[in-house]
Amino acid sequence: MLESKVIKAFFILLRAGLWKKENIPQSFIPLSDREWQELFYLSMQQTVDGIVYYGVQKLPDDWTPPRILHIRWTIRINQLEQLHEKMNNTVAEQAKLFRTNKIDAILLKGQGLAQYYDPTTSRSCGDIDWSFNNKKGFKRANELIRDNKLTISKQAGNSCFYHWKGIETEHHEHIFDIHNPLKKTYLQRLMESYPLEKKLCFSGEIVFTLHPILNMVQVNSHILKHMLSFGIGIRQLCDAARLYFHESKNINKMELLDIYSSLGILPWINLLHQLLVDFLGLPQEDLPIALDRSFNATWMMEEILYAGNFGFYDNRYGVTDQSNSRRNNRNSRLFRNMKKYLPYARQEAIWFPIVHFLSSFRK
Fold first, then answer.
1. Region for residue 157 given its phi and psi (left: phi exceeds 0; alpha: psi -120 to 50; beta: otherwise)
2. 20 to 30 A Cα–Cα from 298, which one of 189, 195, 305, 330?
3. Residue 273 phi/psi, 5° resolution?
4. Which of 203, 272, 208, 216 lies closest to 244 in space, CA to CA?
């Protein structure tokens, strides 16, 4: 799969859109109209069509997509820019509501990570994620949403979601997607060790995000969680790359290495770092820890490309109906992924399906 002409062109354009200094190499082979359609569809599957679009703008005129496709793509980018504005306004409205009601809210992922992109609107929008640092804050935030006449629904993993003016929003009881219960106390100590010093401004409202070290742990453990379940899109890898690029120089790298080791996920982190460098073009010097190639990570990228964003395009288990966000053969997928990642994140691979199952019974 990785040797196909379309896949090679896809990664060239992805890197060109992800990094301002990245140019189109002379080795780029112009695509046919059919191949451009395939690349466009792949970009949407991986929710990186915004990033790839900015890479396309660096192509010579005679190498660009067919005019109809280029117009369609440009319309999508304009819509994405409008959605970013709506998302940012929504973040501000929700942050103000929490602050007014004296609820300490922490913005996770999504629009917070978009601030690391250039331009920020090149990142495809997902939902809005809030965490509240403790169970009391989580419950108060949920009650506040109900008081505002919105329907809030429970999800597996001690989370819940609702729609705010059409924007899906999630509340999380736990900040980190680490499922080993023996690490619960350690994670709480981590939160107490790193203050919420990172602030962002959305439509005039100040919003707190995680300290860069905690953000790296949160973002990467979230990627691991999805790879243990149904899969992840390349957009999430881009998040990790852009976060490292901006913040690696601002952290104590030995502390981060110790955290990864203590959580038992360092071998998997080493696989992830290979993908960020080899496929996404993150400069090796911007990794927070030395690149370790003890294991080959190519198979993991092939898995990501095959399954698509959150596993919705993995036809090994039949065609998925995305309208209800449910994937076929859930248990088979979980067992298969547990076996795949057991050598690299043993405790997480064992505990994830157990915690996932038990959380579905919580009221």
1. left
2. 330
3. -60, -35
4. 216
- The neighbouring-strand residues paired with 130 are 107, 171
Tokens linked to 153:
């629904």
Taking the C-alpha atoms of residue 311 and residue 271, their distance in angstroms, rounded to an integer, is 19
Q: Kindly give, in sequence order, each residue whose CB lies less than 8 Å from that of residue 111, ignoring residues fewer than 6 positions away.
A: 84, 87, 88, 91, 125, 128, 202
Which tokens go with 276? Answer: 């960020």
Report the DSSP beta bridge partners of residue 172: 131, 159
pTM greater than 0.85 (yes/no)? yes
Whole-angstrom distance, CA of residue 66 vs CA of residue 146? 49
- CA–CA dist 180, 203 (Å, integer): 38
CA separation for the pair 276, 244 (Å, rounded): 10
Name the nearest CA neighbour of 113 among 131, 95, 126. Answer: 126
Name residues whose C-beta falls within 8 Å of residue 200's C-beta, 6 or more positions apart in sequence. Answer: 107, 112, 115, 206, 207, 209
Token couple for 41: 């569809």
CA distances from 307 to 179, 223, 225, 332 (A): 23, 14, 15, 14
Sign of CA dihedral 343, 3, 17, 121: negative
Question: What's the pLDDT score for residue 71?
Answer: 97
Q: Can you tell me the distance from the alpha carbon of 65 to that of 289, in angstroms, rounded to the nearest whole number?
A: 39
Q: What is the CA radius of gyration of the chain?
A: 20
Alpha-carbon distance 24 to 63, whole Å? 11
**Closest of 110, 76, 117, 75 to residue 90, by C-alpha:** 110
Mean pLDDT, to the nearest integer, of 50-74? 96
What's the N-to-C CA distance of the chain in angstroms? 44
At 253-296, the pLDDT tens digits run 999 999 999 999 999 999 999 999 999 999 999 999 999 999 99
The CA distance from 131 to 6, in Å, is 39
Are the CB atoms for 236 and 301 separated by under 8 Å? no
Distance of alpha carbon 279 from alpha carbon 271, whole angstroms: 12
Per the DSSP assignment, residues forming a β-bridge with 160 are 154, 171
- The label of the residue with tokens 């190498």 reads 63
